[in-house]
Write a structure and sequence with these properties.
The complex is a heterotrimer.
Chain A lengths: L3 E4 L2 E2 L2 E2 L2 H12 L5 E7 L1 H12 L4 E6 L8 H11 L5 E5 L2 H13 L3 E6 L1 E6 L2 E8 L4 E8 L4 E5 L15 E4 L11 E7 L13 E5 L9 H11 L2 E4 L1 H5 L20 E5 L5 H4 L7 E6 L6 H4 L2 E4 L2 H14 L1
Parallel strand pairs in A: 1-4, 1-6, 4-5, 5-12, 6-11, 7-11, 14-15, 14-16, 16-17, 17-18
Antiparallel strand pairs in A: 2-3, 8-9, 9-10
Helix pairs in contact in A: 3-4, 5-9
Chain B lengths: L2 E6 L2 E3 L22 E3 L1 H17 L1 E8 L5 H10 L3 E5 L9 H14 L4 E5 L9 H9 L3 E10 L4 E7 L5 E7 L2 E5 L11 H6 L7 E2 L1 H4 L13 E7 L8 E2 L4 H15 L4
Parallel strand pairs in B: 1-4, 1-6, 4-5, 5-11, 6-10, 7-10
Antiparallel strand pairs in B: 2-3, 7-8, 8-9
Helix pairs in contact in B: 3-4
Chain C lengths: L11 E2 L2 E2 L1 H28 L9 H13 L8 H27 L13 H31 L15 H31 L12 H9 L4 H25 L7 H10 L36 H9 L5 H5 L1 H4 L6 H15 L19 H5 L6 H5 L7 H13 L5 H13 L17 H6 L3 E2 L8 E3 L3 H5 L4 H13 L4 E3 L9 H5 L3 H18 L3 E4 L2 H10 L6 E3 H10 L14 E4 L13 H8 L5 E3 L28 H11 L4 E4 L2 H13 L7 E4 H7 L4
Parallel strand pairs in C: 3-5, 4-5, 4-6, 6-7, 8-9, 8-10, 10-11
Antiparallel strand pairs in C: 1-2
Classes of the chains: A alpha/beta, B alpha/beta, C mainly alpha.
């Protein structure tokens, strides 16, 4: 098996949670392997991240280039192709960057590619056994991936618990010189930030979050009343924003906001991983849903099978009384 | 100006109208009662392509790798406004993994002279890989999760990508290029039964491995690096403590918990 | 006998004989009128065909009732009475007006037969008529100009206010009355002055008052008044005639025809194009109304006939909740567009798409097809078919709101807008608790029954509405009816599918359902869903007779096969909400009430807006999925109407009404004070074995 590399994504000089999740993922593939972190970027931010993750990885390969001041997947892919050994196992978080980078990377490295892996179940000859999901998480699959010529594997953020042991303690190696010609056909321009709404849910301590179970825009009032009674803010899942019932700034999820509340009330939310991916810090989660089989009940602390349109007003009343 | 656009589409089970379950021997999902339609992301891509061509001229070709049944999605997209359809079908294609599909589509793309190739950001398998692979195979620039496209001139596009936090990453990308399209980029037009009947007898050419010059060993089950072992539903763990009793009792218990966890102010 | 004043036919201004004016005015007037009418008829010729020559006896009845007897006018009492006076006044004065024109050419002219007693009687009638019309005009002008009732208001986006034009025309009519009376009064005053026995003037009429006012004027003054009033009248008359086709008073001319051609059958939707059968639909180039000429000639005649009275919009529930729809302005904007594209002067303009020009997408999607507008219109203007045709046009162009695309695709694939699996359509009958007390035959694999219970989608799949299906099954069983359901062979009836413009999908559903129904061998169909009732009865053909469950209940109570007990809760006050598709569209107002009142001791009240004035709950079928722009929900207004009537239970006879009312009660904060229940459920609870 080739060397295992973990691609580190970061923002503002701080490594993403996935950095330590990939340590755990790599260990699951091969408990004894030494894993190399790859940090691409530019300047002090890049350095800071290298130092940050060095404790968890056998070594850190730094690729520093002005063209990577913003993580442009096209540029980084070229560098990785030149720097990484051909049969490497490259682990990348399955986030918007990973989706951009990895499929093309696997082709250029003549390796296999698996997206959105949620678990590994060992190696059998040339095949790595991987667990994935399909149909929006409705079913799971066991697959095998031939890693003889290497593989690029995107790992679902949050699928593995971050390995905080910091038991590796590697050194930072500067591989920038091997990056090669980085001319690409795509140029980064700028970030257009999402409109800031009236409420910043990323700072909320208690959230009353609504999903499709709210059924109608007019019912959002009911959730707001509960939130008011609890001293909480209202947030939501993607379908609510797609229907334009609430602004994007209220959306909790991988393509929305990341929240870290103490208490999270999931009302009428089924519990798709993209939604859950936006909840960090392991809050006390209460789930209310009409469907007893809703996946949310797997991750919540407390669950109630009920129609939120009936349950929420009653809860609001009792809270207001007491 | 003039833009020749190729949009890769896929026929998938309609998740909204289906209950997806694993079949009795775990080899696939239960397909007996499924209804199918075009992959939602691909539909957004076709709508975007049609809108671009409406503005700057050119044509939209929709292509899919499949069998006779896949033709219906090509026809639906043509009823929507795509000018041409192309079906890539061959027994040798069965069992292809993502790279195999990308290889087949690439062969078809190279036979044309396309300025822009689009795929949906992901499909039923949730991999989102074919577009990126095609770009790399064809040495074309790539951008994924595109939620905005502006034609700058006949050589460049300005595209926005949906990234974390609801933000949008703006890029300039050279043509020809490959883009994978995110939902919400536009509001796809409705295709009624009438529209579909109008294109019911339009000719859709079919091409196989030899027409495309694709090596059978590089595609299909034979050429796949990634293979399916089985489908399953994971055992449910402990999960949440389900509160039982009358609504009053449940609410009482819940309020106790909330007070303890700091959920009430 | 020598005339006391010189008649207009013999008068001279200097050397100029005014008889020339008497000749020219009619010639120019009629000529100009003809020219204008030709321009107005042009778009009718270019418009789509419409077949309106069937059911002649019904059409004649409509003319007698709605046009002549002004049957709908008193629904708005004050305006109605004023209009009736003006209308009958005009009719009565028709003879006088005609004679007056000719009097200008030939002094003392009377129409044949009008010289004797008949003429005298007529003179009295016409004098009261003119007086009545003048008083009505003054009151009307005061109402329009000072009181300004809300329904005449013109929202900014629709342009300038119409009060000026309204008051102007009232002024014109008043002028006609005054000058006609003055012409006569001046003559009679002169008779009195000259000692000639004066003509009899009916007391307290306008002419009678005028005579007294001018009695002592000099003969010269009287002569001037006589001639001046004549020619002012003549001029105003022909001015008015040519003015009529230029605005809302066109209805004076077109109303007779518009009422004659108005729809005689209710509840159904017009075919995509008259003359094109369902089988030929595939060959049509274009569906629906996209530009002006796609409307049928009757619909364009409707635009001409709109009197801008605002009654339609006043009754429109969409308008009441501030959706972007006001039926009145569908007509006014349509009319103005026709006038604009077919100007009196200049070439006809090429038509552009209406959506995005005079109509907006949301405006057209906002309509629930409740029919309140058509029920109200005193001129027989139709709205639903126009809205449906505009929607057909939008669907053809792919302009369907995202919120409707999913349910439409679900109906296409699964036969119901929720996309639930076909095989689960009859699962409501298999519910354990229910199945223990009632068994339901599924008519498949050769099973037959006398009566087919057509459940339709919402009652089959919605958790709450399955209650209606179950209650209906129990009621039918208790009444001894041999019935069955189609199960998975049943598809959505398609009532809203058609009304939202997806005609071909509707045709598909119709074909599949018709086959399934005929295969079942049932000789009668019963349904508890008024939308299904309407579609099966009015839009499908060749089916066995269709009934609503309330009709079955009422009949069964009468013949003793069903017995109801005493009301369980004596304290509750019930009010019946007429569903649009049972009431207005199909005239079933009494059966549900009889069924309700068959429950001994039940306390009922009627809401102010009931029967054909019932206020739509918000709409059914696809309308449940549409996301309108509105300030309030229709259901909330309706729940408040029930509360205002003193009720605490709203009884509906439609699953969509029930969904909307239950939701509305929550949103309106009336939980605990108001509840909603379906008629069948209520009946079911009170069955005595």
């Amino acid at each position: 098996m080739g060397q295992i590399f973990a691609y580190i994504t970061y923002k503002g000089g701080v490594a993403d949670d996935s950095a330590l999740e990939l340590v755990a993922a790599a260990k699951k593939i091969d408990a004894g392997a030494s894993v190399t972190a790859v940090v691409a970027g530019s300047g002090t931010d890049c350095d800071a991240v290298c130092n940050d993750v060095a404790a968890s990885y056998s070594d850190v390969w730094k690729i520093d280039s002005d063209l990577m001041a913003y993580p442009n997947a096209e540029v980084i892919r070229k560098a990785l192709v030149n720097i990484l050994p051909g049969d490497s196992i490259v682990l990348v978080p399955h986030d918007t960057f990973g989706m951009d980078l990895s499929p093309g990377l696997s082709i250029k490295m003549d390796s296999a590619f698996v997206a959105d892996a949620v678990d590994f179940e060992g190696i059998d000859g040339d095949n790595l056994k991987i667990v994935r999901q399909e149909y929006g998480g409705a079913v799971s699959t066991h697959i095998t991936c031939n890693i003889a010529s290497g593989a690029v594997i995107n790992v679902r953020p949050g699928a593995f618990q971050p390995d905080e042991s910091k038991s590796a303690g590697g050194s930072v190696v500067d591989k920038s010189g091997d990056a090669g010609d980085l001319t690409v056909g795509r140029k980064y321009l700028e970030i257009v930030e999402a409109e800031v709404g009236d409420v910043d849910i990323t700072k909320s301590e208690v959230l009353v979050s609504i999903g499709r179970g709210i059924e109608d825009e007019d019912n959002i009032e009911v959730a707001q009343e509960l939130a008011d009674a609890m001293g909480a803010d209202v947030s939501c899942s993607r379908p609510i924003v797609d229907s334009k019932w609430l602004e994007k700034s209220r959306q909790v999820g991988t393509s929305g906001q990341t929240v870290k509340p103490k208490v999270y009330m999931a009302m009428g939310i089924s519990g798709s991983f993209q939604h859950l991916g936006g909840i960090k810090g392991n809050p006390f989660m209460v789930a209310v849903n009409k469907n007893p089989k809703a996946p949310i009940f797997q991750v919540a602390d407390v669950g109630v099978v009920a129609d939120i349109l009936e349950f929420m007003p009653e809860l609001t009343e009792k809270i207001s009384e007491g | 100006m003039n833009m020749e656009i190729l949009v890769c589409v896929k026929r998938v089970p309609d998740t909204a109208e289906n209950e997806i379950e694993v079949n009795s021997d775990g080899t696939d999902i239960e397909r007996d009662d499924l209804v199918y339609s075009v992959n939602e992301w691909d539909n957004y891509a076709v709508e975007e392509a049609i809108q671009i061509v409406d503005k700057v001229g050119g044509s939209v070709t929709v292509v899919t790798v499949g069998d006779d049944e896949s033709e219906e999605v090509l026809r639906r997209e043509m009823a929507m406004g795509a000018n041409n359809g192309l079906l890539l079908s061959d027994d040798a294609f069965n069992g292809s993994d993502g790279k195999g599909i990308a290889t087949i589509l690439k062969a078809a793309a190279e036979k044309g002279n396309y300025d822009l190739i689009m795929t949906g950001a992901q499909a039923d398998a949730g991999a989102g890989q074919v577009g990126g692979m095609m770009a790399a195979m064809m040495d074309l620039p790539y951008a994924s999760l595109v939620n905005k496209i502006e034609v700058i001139d006949d050589k460049k596009l300005k595209v926005g990508r949906e990234i974390e936090g609801g933000n949008q990453e703006m890029n300039e990308i050279d043509m020809p290029c490959v883009l994978s399209i995110q939902t919400g980029i536009n509001e796809p037009r409705y295709v009624g039964i009438r529209g579909i009947r109008k294109v019911a007898s339009v000719e859709i050419p079919v091409q196989g491995a030899s027409d495309l010059g694709v090596d059978a060993g590089a595609v299909g089950a034979a050429g796949a690096d990634v293979k399916l072992v089985d489908y399953f539903v994971p055992e449910l763990g402990e999960g949440a403590e389900m509160l039982e009793g009358s609504t009053e009792e449940i609410i009482g218990k819940l309020i106790e918990y909330l007070k303890a966890k700091g959920g009430l102010k | 006998m020598e005339p006391v004043l010189i008649a207009p036919s013999n008068f001279f201004i200097g050397f100029f004989p005014t008889v020339i004016i008497s000749f020219l005015l009619p010639v120019v007037g009629v000529g100009l009128f003809t020219y204008i009418m030709a321009k107005r008829i042009a778009p009718l010729v270019k418009a789509a065909p419409d077949y309106r020559f069937d059911h002649i006896p019904s059409r004649v009845m409509n003319v007698l009732k709605i046009w002549l007897a002004q049957w709908r006018q008193p629904r708005y009492m004050v305006a109605g009475v004023l209009h009736i006076i003006i209308f009958f006044g005009f009719l009565a004065l028709a003879i006088r007006s005609t004679s007056l024109v000719i009097i200008g050419l030939k002094e003392g002219f009377v129409l044949p037969g009008m010289d004797g007693t008949l003429g005298h009687i007529y003179n009295i009638i016409k004098d009261y008529a003119a007086t009545g019309v003048l008083i009505a005009c003054i009151l009307a002008a005061y109402r329009r100009g000072v009181l300004r009732p809300e329904r005449y208001d013109v929202p900014e986006k629709y342009g300038h206010d119409h009060t000026g034009e309204a008051v102007f025309v009232l002024g014109v009519i008043a002028t006609l009355m005054i000058t006609e009376s003055l012409f006569e009064a001046s003559y009679v005053a002169a008779q009195v002055q000259k000692g000639v026995p004066p003509e009899f003037l009916a007391p307290l009429t306008l002419v009678w008052f005028l005579k007294y006012i001018i009695l002592n004027a000099s003969i010269d003054t009287l002569q001037v008044l006589h001639i001046a009033s004549y020619y002012i009248h003549d001029f105003t008359f022909f001015f008015f005639l040519c003015f009529l086709p230029l605005g809302k008073h066109f209805h004076v001319i077109t109303s007779f025809f518009n009422v004659f051609f108005m729809r005689v059958k209710k509840g159904n939707i017009k075919p995509v194009k008259h003359g094109v059968s369902d089988e030929e639909l595939d060959d049509l180039e274009s569906f629906g109304v996209k530009k002006l000429e796609d409307f049928t000639w009757k619909h364009i005649l409707d635009f001409y006939s709109c009197a801008d009275c605002g009654r339609c919009s006043d009754q429109c529930p969409a308008n009441a909740v501030s959706r972007p729809l006001s039926p009145r302005f569908i007509s006014i904007k349509g009319r103005d567009k026709v006038f604009n594209n077919y100007p009196l002067n200049g070439p006809f303009l090429k038509s552009r798409p209406l959506i995005g020009d005079i109509y907006e997408e949301d405006e057209i999607w906002s309509c629930t097809t409740c029919g309140a507008c058509e029920e109200e219109c005193p001129l027989g203007i139709e709205y639903i078919d126009k809205i449906v045709d505009l929607r057909r046009g939008m669907v053809d162009e792919g302009m369907v709101p995202q919120s409707l695309q999913k349910p439409l695709s679900a109906v296409e694939k699964r036969g119901n807008p929720w996309g639930k699996m076909e095989k689960k359509r009859a699962d409501w009958a298999k519910d354990k608790e229910f199945a223990e007390t009632c068994s339901v035959k599924v008519l498949e694999k050769g099973a037959t029954a006398d009566v087919l219970y057509f459940v339709d989608s919402i009652s089959s799949f919605d958790d709450r509405m399955q209650g209606i299906a179950q209650a209906t099954a129990r009621v039918l069983t208790a009444a001894g009816v041999d019935f069955g359901v189609l199960g998975k062979a049943e598809k959505d009836s398609g009532n809203e599918i058609r009304r939202f413009g997806e005609e071909m999908l509707f045709q598909d559903l119709k074909g599949q359902n018709t086959d399934a129904i005929m295969d079942s061998g049932a000789s009668r169909i019963v349904t508890a869903d008024p939308h299904a009732y309407n579609a099966l009865k009015n839009d499908y053909n060749g089916l066995p007779p269709v009934e609503h469950i309330s009709q079955v209940v009422t009949r069964s109570i009468k013949d003793g096969s069903l017995r109801l007990g005493r009301i369980e809760d004596e304290s509750k006050v019930y009010t019946y909400h007429d569903p649009c598709y049972l009431g207005r569209h199909n005239g079933l107002y009494e059966d549900p009430r009889e069924a309700l009142n068959a429950i001994e001791g039940i306390r009922t009240v009627e809401m102010l807006k009931s029967r054909d004035r019932s206020f739509c709950c918000g709409g059914g079928g696809l309308m449940l999925f549409y996301e309108p722009e509105e300030e309030e929900r229709m259901g909330v207004l309706r729940a408040n109407m029930a509360a205002d009537a003193g009720a605490n239970v709203i009884v509906t006879a439609c699953p969509f009404c029930l969904v909307n009312m239950e939701d509305a009660i929550k949103v309106a904060g009336l939980e605990g004070k108001m509840e909603a229940i379906d008629l069948v459920e209520l009946i079911d609870r009170h069955i005595v074995k």
